[in-house]
Structure formats: structure tokens, C-alpha cells
Amino acid sequence: MSVCVGLTGPAAASLDSCVAAIRSQAVKAGVSRSTVEAALQGVAYDEKAVRFSTSQPEYKTPIWDYLAFLVDDARIEDGRAMLKRHATTLANVEKRYGVDRHIVAAVWGVESDYGQFRGDFHVPHALANVACAGRRAKYFRSELIEILKIVDRKDVRLSDLQGSWAGAFGQTQFMPSTYRRLAVDFDGDGRKDLVNSVPDALASTANYLKKAGWVTGMPWGYEVKLPKGYSGPSGRKTRASVTTWGKRGIRHLDGGDLTGAADAGLLLPAGAEGPAFLVFKNFNAIYSYNVAESYALAISHLADRLRGGGAFKVGWPTADPGLSRAERLELQKLLLRAGYDIGEADGRVGAATREGIRQAEARFGFPRTGRPGQRIYKALGGR
């Protein structure tokens, strides 16, 4: 029996009825009744999961905030340590699938902070919520049944299914249907366990990228220099040879000519005033992992940093850059010290922190944005 906490009357009955229908459908699909009952016991209405199903940060967060958070010094340092710790596994994965180990490690770092963070949601319950009360009900119902099959096969324990509201789980956050198609048993223990096995998680990610069109030896792309006032074609899908981009006035960062027959798109994530990138087929493979250009750029840039590269040469066109994870935590502590009731300082910027920021912004005469940026951070005494 599901427990519809926060819902009463017809809404509660609707969720109960929906979960009951999913139970029946899962059993008909071959999932054991015991797995179905264990996984869906006590399903409660989850407002957060349903709300998240209508909006994702990749599509609403300024690119300079998104990358400041995902590609910070701590994630780079931790990633370099992981490259050393798991050097043999990563070398074997790269040899088997032909995917750059730094890209694989970057996906691992962004998706779960190298296995340190698995997600806020118990996946079967989150999927039941979005299948019954969110958008794309048919899709999420199918994903829920897939994850029940994974548990039934004993690849992953039910208690290990912490992940995202949308059903992604494991150290590199696979959706259940992707898990079925592309997860691999790389450590040879007879189970495809992307939760507890680093080799399985890393190899599965490489397998995904290979099947998505990864070309061994090709870069994802690189930063380029635009001519002043550039207003020509751009976009990941607007492709031309590197030589053609060169004829349009685009140059290497050192001013050298661009030449080459490989097709590339010109990515301008913040318009012509910000950093510009030529992106190749491998960028599209990374893009397919989460279908957001900001995500693909974060993975690509983190991989370059793990390899020893530096920050982008051209700065973001903003007077208020984003904050690293450490700075976000410090901002919360500063807000608390200043008397703003934002709850616990945990580094994760939610509604209470944003409201505290808005109140602080009003105090300093800033526009009330609720955004965790350098301006309010420094106004409150940030270093």
C-alpha cells in the first residue's frame, strides 16, 4: 500500500491507483512479486521529485555559475587523485573502448563526485512519483519497471538505489533503460553493478560513449579566438570544416590559422563576447549523455583540467562570476552569521538560501536575484 503523505482525497486515491497499476504491470513484465512489493512499499507523494521533473539546472543556470560549481579546484584535485588511484582500471577501460580516460573520469566526477554522492532520492519511489504525477508518464513508468528488473536480476541491491528524481543511479548515473543496454561487468564478478564497482561504472560509461559515436584519438574540441564583432554562423549543429571556420576569421588562441578537413561546430555558450569553441564529433557523444551543451562543456573542460590544462583564456561576459562549491558553503555560513535564517550550511543552494541571498541583496542595494554570485559573497565578507 502506498502512503500519500501530503495528499488527501482524490489526489491520494489517484496516486494509490497509479502505483497499484504499476505493480500489476511490473509483475506482468516478469518482475517477481516480492521485488515489486519491496520496491514500491510505502510510496509517498514527493513534491520535490515532481517539481524537478519540470525543470533542470542545465537549462536555467547561467553558464558561468554552472561551470564554477562543476569544475572547481576541489573536483580537479580529487579527479587527479582518482586518475592515479584507478590508473590500471582506467588504462584497461581506455584500451578496451578507445575512449579517453580523462573524459571517463570527468563524467564520474560530475555525476557523483567520484562516487561520493549518489543522489537525494530513493529511485523506485521517485520514479513512481514522476510516472504518476509528472510529465512523460509512459516513459518514467517504463524506466521504473526496468529498474525493478535490475533488482530482480540481483545486479544491484534495492537498498543501493539512491539517485536522481528521474531515475538515474550509480557512480556515473545511468538511467535504467540505458543500464539494460550498455552496462557491463568489467570486474568479472557476474554482476553489472554501477553502484559499488568502480570498474563496472567506468567501463559502462566508456561503452556508452563509444556507442554514442566516440572517435578514438579525436579531441572533443578546443577554445578559439573570434574576430572582433563576429556575427557569422554558430551552433553545435551548424557544421563546417575547420578550414572553413578559419576562412570566416576564426583563429587559434595564439592567432594562428585554422586548417583541417574535420567537421566542427562553433559553440558560443555565452554569445560572441564570451569563450568560443570549435567542437567535434566527440563533443556530441558527450552531449548525448545528458542532452545539454552546458553539461557537455563541463565534462570536456574538466577532462582538460584533469589532463593538466588551464582555465579558459577568454572570461565569461559577466561582472558577477559564479562560486565554487567551497565558496557556496562559505556564503551560507556568512548568511547565517549575518542573521539570515537559511537553515543548515551544507553547500547546496536551495530555496531557503536563495531567499536569504535576496534579503541580503536588498540590504546592500543590489537587485534581488537570489543568485549565489561573487558580488553578494564579497559584500558579506567572502574571501
What overall form do the CA principal axes indicate? globular
Roughly how many Å is the radius of gyration? 23 Å
Query: H/E series, N to C?
Result: HHHHHHHEHHEHHEEHEEHHHHH
What's the rounded overall pLDDT mean?
A: 94
Molecular structure report:
The structure is a single chain. The chain has helices at residues 9-28, 33-40, 47-52, 63-70, 73-85, 87-97, 101-112, 123-133, 137-152, 176-182, 198-211, 242-247, 281-290, 293-306, 325-337, 351-364, 374-379; strands spanning 121-122, 162-163, 221-224, 235-241, 263-267, 276-279. It has 383 residues and is of the alpha+beta class. The strands form two sheets. Strands 3-6-5-4 form a four-stranded antiparallel β-sheet. It has a two-stranded antiparallel ribbon with strand order 1-2. Strand 5 and strand 6 (276-279) form a beta hairpin. Helix 1 (9-28) packs across helix 8.
